[in-house]
Amino acid sequence: MYNHYQMQSFLNTTLEHLKKHKLHPIPENYKVWYEYTCTSNTELNEEIDALMAQQTAISEEICHKLLKKYFVSNEQKDFDAARLAFSHLLNVVISQISNWSSNHGSFCQALEKCTQKLNSDPSISEIKDIITDLTQEAKSMADASNDINSVLGSLNNEVKQLRKDLEQAGSEAVTDSLTGVSNRRGLDERLRNAIAEAQNQHSDLSLIMIDLDHFKTINDSFGHNTGDKVLKLAASIMKKNLRSSDFLARYGGEEFTVILPNTNLKSAVKVADHLRKAISAKQLSTGRNGQIIGRLTISAGVTQHRPQENAETLLDRGDKYMYKAKHSGRNRVISDSDLSSY
């Protein structure tokens, strides 16, 4: 167990690592570097040390890969458990089918023997014996058929449940639990797909990076519960004002990202400004005593995807414009078209 001073030292060192590698202080990056600082995961430390020895830049993408590699989420564990359950079920079915096939072979052999006996001019007593044998074999075959039908019925039900479990696990793995919109993992996956689609179809793709202005002040003045409500409200307003084809994600902390497929820069700037106005139109107050918080504003950076550009570069540029918007007075939108002015 670490004492207060050790934990404070770990915190400071972790933040220094994030600053050194120019990484955003989001939970995913913080987790990787805090564990590295604590030296609690030898393999993680060895891999990061090797990367730094090779003078490899520890990017957001590399941090994400390290997080997935060394820190398995509960959702992933649920996903793996569902897969194992399905594998076990399939083994049971295979076993039942094998038994059924064996019984089917025995039944065919019994039929052949009965046919041979009937062709050899049997007596009435022998015919009775043949009928008895056939009855027993038919019963065994029917029992085997009932067993496999029962198993196949169970399989059908289990597959339906498994599909629901997997869909839920997959959804939870890419959903931000507070706001209900996509999380960083879901964003990374969707952005990669959106870029690939834009390149294949030679279509426009734009991105908005959004930061809630003065959010830290709201948290410090009114508490984290109020801060959480503000985050949920902002996400809800943005979602209502976007197309179904657009994609909203919580990038981390009070930052959000919007992916706009089939949208050029000019249209994307209009979307960002529309979101800015929609959010600032809401007067905020605390639920407890109705204390006025004020109007929430956002700073947004808008950029359009460029040919052969990867997701990391696109996000970085949008992030840079967003910070320019904040440093230029907040409550505004900065885009590619404004670059020459800054």
* CATH secondary-structure class of the largest domain: Alpha Beta
Number of distinct helices? 11
Strand fraction equals 5-15%
Return the string of H and E elements: HHHHHHHEHHEEHEEEHE
Structural class estimated from helices and strands: alpha+beta
Whole-number tally of structural domains: 3
**CATH-defined fold name of the largest domain:** Alpha-Beta Plaits
> What is the global morphology?
elongated
Q: CATH homologous superfamily of the largest domain, by name?
A: Reverse transcriptase/Diguanylate cyclase domain
**Would you identify the regions where 5 or more consecutive residues have pLDDT less than 50?**
none
Helical content stands at 55-70%
* Nearest-integer average pLDDT: 81
Total DSSP E strands? 7
GO molecular function: diguanylate cyclase activity
Pfam families: GGDEF
Catalytic activity: 2 GTP = 3',3'-c-di-GMP + 2 diphosphate
Organism: Dasania phycosphaerae
Describe this structure in words.
It is a single chain. With 342 residues, this protein is of the alpha+beta class. The protein has 3 domains: 4-70, no CATH class; 74-173, Helix Hairpins; 184-341, Alpha-Beta Plaits (2-Layer Sandwich), CATH 3.30.70. Helices cover 65% and strands 11% of the residues. It is built from 11 helices and 7 strands. The protein has helices at residues 4-20, 27-38, 42-53, 60-70, 74-118, 124-173, 184-201, 215-222, 224-240, 265-280, 311-327; strands at residues 205-212, 247-252, 255-261, 283-285, 292-295, 298-304, 333-335. The strands form 2 sheets. The protein has a 5-stranded mixed sheet with strand order 2-3-1-6-7, sandwiched between helices. It has a two-stranded antiparallel sheet with strand order 4-5. The longest helix is centred in the middle third of the chain and has 50 residues, at 124-173. It starts with a helix and ends in a 7-residue tail after the last strand. The model has no long low-confidence stretch (mean pLDDT 81). Pfam families: GGDEF.
